Amino acid sequence: MDVWRRAFVSAASSSVRFETVDVFSSHKFGGNQLAVVLDEQRRLSDDDMRRIAIEFGFSETTIVLPPKSEANTAWVRIFSKDGDEMPFAGHPNVGTATVLAWRRSIFGKEVRGTVLLEEKAGLVPLELIEDEAGRPVGATLTAPEPFSLSSPPLPAEAAAALIGLEANDVCAARHPPLAASTGLPFLLVELSSLAALGRSRGVPSAFEALAAGGAATLLPPKVLAYVRLDSSGGEAARLELRARMHRADGSEDAGTGSANCALAGLLASLDGTPPGLVRARVRQGVEMGRPSELLAEAERKGAGAGAE
């Protein structure tokens, strides 16, 4: 993960420090952009936070505040590019934890090893990743909630329409299109080919039509479409996946940790999956010109699964 700017932002009469980073990438201008705003003195109002997130225009912006419990590293509020507060998101956690580690300390405590972030969805633990020189380069997060399905399956034709495809582009052999969550819900759709993935796009009118028909009451406005490149079995095997995450407004995300947490949980929960860890490497953002690489794993325990 790389940092490409450090500066100050002024809200009314207050100034706070921020950093912008490229998450899920080892070089500038790749991965998913994130702004991390350090409001150590709690100078910002809720409206300030929303306006700052809108001004940055990144998929998410985090506001770092003093923790509510001294046992934790920080309280983190996550805002979308539209200024909406989110309960949980993947790349904001990874980026924020790494930025705090680069600072070495915050709120009078050293930042190393395990980072504990308080969020709307719950406490999010992260383990810092260091390079050979001992410099923090990323983090591994554990999702704040166990894997769960949040709505009934969606027919292949309806799911395909949301992302501009035909029903035969959807692969339902392992699972139908499903809405799932480990803290933030996404519609998970396996596609039949990389060509179909390349043609996919968010179609706002299709989301609107589904909602008008009453079938989208619990449908998330975000679709993670993915293709399996390697489906070899075995406990030590790692699935190789390619993915795109499309929103109902037609925009796309370069690297979506929360969606891939849910995907890992889904893969672990499928019938025929033996107990133990399911590991996957997901490449996302390629078509956007901001390639991201995410490593995900989930553990199947009997009839259920937990994802991190």
Task: Explain the layout of strands and helices.
Blueprint: E1 2-11, E2 14-23, E3 32-38, H1 46-56, E4 60-65, E5 74-80, E6 85-86, H2 90-103, E7 105-106, E8 109-110, E9 114-119, E10 122-130, E11 136-141, E12 148-149, H3 156-162, E13 178-181, E14 185-190, H4 194-199, H5 204-212, E15 222-230, E16 238-247, E17 252-253, H6 257-269, E18 276-284, E19 292-301, E20 304-307
What's this, in brief?
This protein is α+β, with helices and mostly antiparallel strands and 308 residues long. It has six helices and 20 strands. The C terminus is likely disordered.
Number of strand elements: 20
How much of the polypeptide forms β-strand, as a percent range? 35-45%
Rg, please? 19 Å
SSE class? alpha+beta
Distance between the termini: 19 Å
Backbone shape: globular
The share of residues in helices is 10-25%
Largest sheet report: 9 strands, mixed
Averaged pLDDT: 90
